[in-house]
Amino acid sequence: MLGYGEALKLVLERAVPLAPRRVPLMEALGLAAAEDILAREPVPPFTNSAMDGFALRAADAGPGRLPVAGTVPAGMAEVPALGPGEALRIMTGAPVPAGADVILPLEHVRVEGDWVILPEAPRRGANIRLQGEDIPAGGRVVPAGAVLRPAEVGVLAAIGCPEVPVRPRPRVAVITTGNELVDAGDRPGPGQIRDANIHSLCAQVLAAGGVPLPRPRVEDRRETVARALLGALGEADVVLTNGGISVGDFDYIKAVLEDNGAERVFWKVAQKPGSPLGLWVLGGKLIFGIPGNPVAAMLMFEEYVRPAVRRMMGYRNLHRPARAGVLEEGWTRSGDARRTEFLRVVAGPGGRVALAGPQGSGILSGMMRANALAVIPEGPMALEAGAEVLLHLLDEAEDH
Ligand code: AMP
Ligand code: MG
Measured in angstroms, how far is the CA atom of residue 240 from the centroid of ligand 2? Predict the structure, then answer.
């Protein structure tokens, strides 16, 4: 059976960055630039005052007084030139008048009628912001692949880039399956449970940067499953089916996909939970078959779908921080040792790791307590307290 590392590699081979698109700057936050973005103009576009105060010639400054010849507000288009032996009142952001080479802040002078009384001689160039000192014209401000944070968005506005070439957010359809499921707002009848996974999975899509498309839930009937899948493929870049992917009598996802010509990349991974995980490709779109157990569903999203979504968005860092931790309590494997196991754990200070409660794949509340997954490779049947484990830190941003 395929191992965890091999399966992840296959996922990342198939998840390729989406075609670039130009989006309005207001929608660009969190997206990766699809190409290098150059500044066509310098920032600031003209030399201007950094303070409210007085513009003068440094040669005229020094203890003494100068007549105030006028006022230069911010936004003034035709700024008067500064004559020798004069000062001009000037506001922050206003163009520096020709002839002036220093701005004295208002707080450093005294004003008496039409005269400004100067203290000590200021340094030439003080409080003047030079054209292009922030960003020179022609420079690369954002390299291709960089993620646009609020600062990048602001800089792009400053250089006159109201639309940005980016990798778009993947639209991810989520289809839950199961005759036993009812909506979160419904009271389950005998044998029924609420559909938790439509919510956890759509929330994970959103948290990963994708656009969740929750689809109507599907009962375990071949025709209904087929219709739902083909409908979702028409609207999404990625389809997540949930449940019905194992070997139960009513697990139709796999058969329906393959009857409709989907290419199987893999089905079944030597891991726990989540062994029935599958990946198919149809019409260039990825279809993940995710098992229905609520913990398995979330873990499979976290370990496989989230990196795929990020790669489609053009992100370079696909994976959560991986650190070593030390188990505070012993752990014994149940079942096949040729599997990777993902334990829900709480990673505390000093790398100490405690289990986040019972580890059954239906114990969804354990996912609330856990801040990390301990990834136990195939092999050991048990780990003793003090054993070192590899952690994937769930609450921290991707770093590699
Ligand atoms: P399945 O993968 O369809 O065999 O489902 C495995 C287990 O997960 C069963 O106990 C299901 O009732 C449960 N399950 C499947 N889908 C969901 C869902 N959307 N929300 C909550 N539990 C689910
Ligand atoms: Mg089911």
Answer: 14
Which ligand sits nearest to residue 220's alpha carbon?
A: 2
Residues with a CB atom less than 6 Å from ligand 1 = 176, 178, 180-181, 193, 195-198, 242-244, 246, 248, 291-294
Q: How many domains does the chain have?
A: 4
Residue 122 predicted with pLDDT over 90: no
Residue 152 falls within a domain, yes or no? Answer: yes
Average pLDDT, the chain: 97
Which domain covers residue 26, as residue numbers?
A: 22-42+134-167
| Phi-psi region at 75: left, alpha or beta (left = phi > 0; alpha = psi -120 to 50) | left
Residues, CB within 5 angstroms of ligand 2 (ion): 178, 243-244, 292
Q: Strand (E) positions, 140-268?
A: 140-142, 163-166, 171-176, 181-182, 193-194, 211-214, 238-242, 263-267
Q: How many angstroms does the Cα of residue 395 sit away from the middle of ligand 1? A: 25
Determine, yes or no, domain membership for 256.
Answer: yes
Distance 119 CA to ligand 1 centre (A): 79
CATH number, domain containing residue 257: 3.40.980.10
In the listed set 76, 101, 129, which residue is the last one of a domain according to the structure?
129
- Tell me the pLDDT tens digit for each residue of 314-343: 999 999 999 999 999 999 999 899 999 999
Residues 28 and 104 in one domain: no
CA atoms of 100 and 204, how far apart (whole Å): 57
